[in-house]
Write a structure and sequence with these properties.
Layout lengths: L1 E5 L4 E5 L2 H8 L9 H17 L6 H6 L34
Antiparallel strand pairs: 1-2
Length: about 100
C-alpha cells in the first residue's frame, strides 16, 4: 500500500499494489445478508485492514490500484492518469520520453 494522488477523489488516497488488490478482489461476492454486504462487505473490510482507511464506496476498490497510474509528472509531481499517458492531467506538461 502506498499513498498517491487519486484523480477521481481529488485527494491523496491509499492505493493497493497488485497483490493487495488480488486479495481484496478475491472477496467480491463472498458476503452474506443484503446485496451490498454480499457483494462488497468482505472486500471493503479487507481494504480497511490493509490501508487503515474505512472506505464506503465500493467503486474506490476498483480505482485505488497503483498499477492503473503512471509515473509522477516531471513538472508537478502528480501521477500521470495512466501508465501510457503522454500529458499530465493536472498541469498538461508533456511526458518526457
Amino acid at each position: 500500500m502506498r499513498t498517491l494522488w487519486c484523480w477521481r477523489c481529488k485527494a491523496e488516497m491509499p492505493m493497493l499494489d497488485d497483490d493487495e488488490f488480488k486479495r481484496v478482489s478475491s472477496l467480491f461476492n463472498t458476503g452474506a445478508g443484503e446485496i451490498r454486504e454480499r457483494k462488497f462487505g468482505p472486500a471493503l473490510r479487507e481494504y480497511e485492514r490493509i490501508t487503515g482507511v474505512r472506505e464506503t464506496n465500493p467503486n474506490a476498490l476498483y480505482h485505488h490500484v497503483l498499477s492503473m497510474y503512471g509515473p509522477p509528472c516531471a513538472n508537478c509531481g502528480k501521477p500521470l492518469r495512466t501508465p501510457k499517458a503522454r500529458l499530465c492531467g493536472s498541469c498538461m506538461h508533456p511526458r518526457g520520453m
